[in-house]
Amino acid sequence: MIAGRVRTDAYRLGILRNWAALRGKTVLDVGAGTGILSVFCAQAGARRVYAVEASAIWQQAREVVRLNGLEDRVLVLPGPVETVELPEQVDAIVSEWMGYGLLHESMLSSVLHARTKWLKEGGLLLPASAELFVAPISDQMLEWRLGFWSQVKQHYGVDMSCLESFATRCLMGHSEIVVQGLSGEDVLARPQRFAQLELARAGLEQELEVYLV
After folding, report:
1. What keywords tag this UniProt record (predicted)?
2. What is the pLDDT of residue 212?
3. Which of 1, 27, 89, 211 is the most buried (most CB within 10 A)?
4. Residue 175, SS3?
């Protein structure tokens, strides 16, 4: 996350701009990682931040807290948020929970669990909502991989064009998320919002409000 300046700056600005809602309050950081969001919350004036991290990186998060002189305000708690016990309800929850395509391998269920168990009535969620946009694209690499089989005969004298439909099913039917850069010319139409998620009322089944376009 930290190497992604756009995303990290967005979180930092979102937290610091909400300083009035965080000053003197308690915050839970779900999946704290290295602890940078917890530090941002402390910088915004939070009285106490509970940084919960299930992986071994929690040890480095504790060191980050120490290096920034925040040991009296940021408490790093190792373990999954589903089992960690806090000494109190919190006024706000912050988390960098989003996966690729928003929901792929995301931590949303953990955030919603924490919201239900630990967030005070009317408490703050950062982020509070998310939107998902789609757009048609032109993928030259995909086109090449699909068209390759029709060119085998030209190169090797063996007709393998029957494999083109098989390759299409293999490439288009898998559930893995592919992350790759695109130029503006590859985007064929303006992105359209097709789903929105409101964390304050989303259920653990991770339902989306779907807007048909």
Report:
1. Methyltransferase, S-adenosyl-L-methionine, Transferase
2. 42
3. 27
4. coil
The number of domains in the chain is: 2
Do 181 and 199 lie in a common domain? no
Instruction: Look at residue 213 in the predicted model and tell me its pLDDT.
Output: 41
Together in a domain, 16 and 120: yes
Taking all residues of the chain, what is their mean pLDDT, rounded to a whole number? Answer: 88
Q: What is the DSSP string of 48-70?
A: EEEEEE-STTHHHHHHHHHHTT-
The confidence score (pLDDT) of residue 145 equals 77
Provide the domain limits for residue 166.
140-186
Catalytic residues: 96, 105
40 plus 68 within the same structural domain: yes
Give the pLDDT of residue 175.
60
14 within some domain: yes
pLDDT on residue 205: 56
Query: By C-alpha distance, which of 113, 91, 102, 109 is closest to 7?
Result: 102
Closest CA to 94 of 42, 56, 58, 57: 42
Helix, strand, coil share of the chain (percent; to 5) = 35, 25, 40
Alpha helices in the chain (DSSP H): 5-17, 19-22, 36-43, 58-67, 108-118, 140-147, 152-156, 163-173
Residue recorded with tokens 């998060």: 61
Same domain? For 83 and 13 the reply is yes
C-alpha to C-alpha distance for 1 and 136, rounded to whole angstroms: 27
Site of tokens 């308690």: 26
pLDDT at 203 over 80: no
Same domain as 200, residue 161: no
